[in-house]
Amino acid sequence: MELVQSLIQGDRKALSRLVSLVESDPRKMIQIMREVFPHTGKALLIGITGPPGAGKSSLVDKLIQHFRKEKKEVGVIAIDPSSPFSGGAILGDRIRMQSHATDKGVFIRSLGSRGSHGGLSKATKEIVRLYDAAGFDVIIIETVGVGQTELDIMEIADTTLVVLVPESGDTVQTMKAGLMEIADIFVVNKADRDGAELLASELKEMIHFTAGGKGGWVQPVVLTKANVGEGINNVIREINENAKFRDRNSAELKRKGNIRRAELLEILLDEVRGKIESSSDSGDLKPYFDNVEKGERDPYSASIEVLSTGILAKVLNSET
User: Fold this and answer.
1) How confident is the prediction for the chain on average, in pLDDT?
2) Residues with Cβ < 8 Å from 83, sequence gap 6 or more?
3) What's the DSSP call for residue 116?
4) Three-state SS for 195?
């Protein structure tokens, strides 16, 4: 595919077009990613998450500045909340990070979460791989918020930063388990506010009681004032330390393998679901769906017949 070849050569217009294709057309996505995948695996992937107002975008802005000083090219994917009514998103990252708008070594793209439960857009993983193949040294994924459901970022990022502020105390209490699973590094931002030191102490206590933190990695707690760049060097140091830990940790290889296995299963299930939905409207499965919809038949006996008579195999082998 000509667009993919242009992408690999660093063409940013090709990257933009491929991101749009992957977002809008799941059928084309698989063909595109088959060509892109062999050119991935080189970039450092950093996830940034935390409650609204924690200063995630300010932190991302300062991280970009640091990596650019090191002559590294940086890609940013900012996931914005989609409207539950229109599906539209408040895509404000270019306003927040406008100081990098003219830097050819920085590429920023907004995605709407579109109701995805993990705080990420459905196509985030594929778009990260497009960035990777395009030659970015560092890819930063800033997510909608944080909570028990936002574990998706763990399956994409190498290192995940959970950004909190002194006012996050109640939030921490309600999602302790999720925080411990998500975070590789805790960042207490706006450290000049009352309660910052207390929050940092509470986090360290939580980490202590988890007996070794996350998979043997004891999550550090870093205080920052991201709006003025204070503490950013400490954040970078901990990101580098986490990378060293992952390189020598055999459990990390197993975790990555499990993620790849789950991804194959997800792709297959999406393909199967798409074919079934298509056939339910105008194909061999339509009579079954119609009968169940009218209440003339229960879904259990209908599913047993579909699975036992070979109809589903016929549907899956059909061209759609």
Assistant:
1) 84
2) 89
3) -
4) coil
The separation between CA 104 and the C-alpha centre of its own chain, rounded to angstroms, equals: 24
| Residue pointed to by tokens 């999602």 | 175
Full-model pTM: 0.84
Across 243-259, average pLDDT: 85
Count of Cβ atoms closer than 10 Å to residue 236 Cβ? 16
Which of 4-18, 87-101, 256-270 comes out lowest in average pLDDT?
A: 87-101
What is the average per-residue pLDDT within 263-273? 89
Q: Vertex 129, ends 123 and 131: CA angle to 5°? A: 105
* The token pair that represents 183 in the structure block: 């975070």
Exposed / middle / buried, residue 24 (Cβ in 10 Å: 0-12, 13-18, 19+):
exposed
pLDDT band of 225, cuts 50, 70, 90: very high
Q: How far apart are CA 300 and CA 275, in angstroms?
A: 20
Q: Which residue has the higher pLDDT, 9 or 169?
A: 9
Q: Are 178 and 266 in contact (CB under 8 A)?
A: no
Number of Cβ within a 10 Å radius of residue 169? 13
Beta strands in the chain (DSSP E): 44-49, 74-80, 106-112, 138-142, 159-164, 185-188, 221-223
Name all contacts of 268-271 with Cβ < 8 Å and 24+ positions apart. Answer: 270/26, 271/30
Give residue-wise pLDDT tens across range 41-61.
999 999 998 888 888 989 999
Dist CA 91 CA 132 (whole Å): 22
Are 111 and 80 a contacting pair, CB within 8 Å?
yes
Positive or negative, the Cα torsion across 110, 113, 119, 124? Answer: negative
Q: How far apart are the C-alpha atoms of 61 and 157, rounded to whole Å?
A: 18
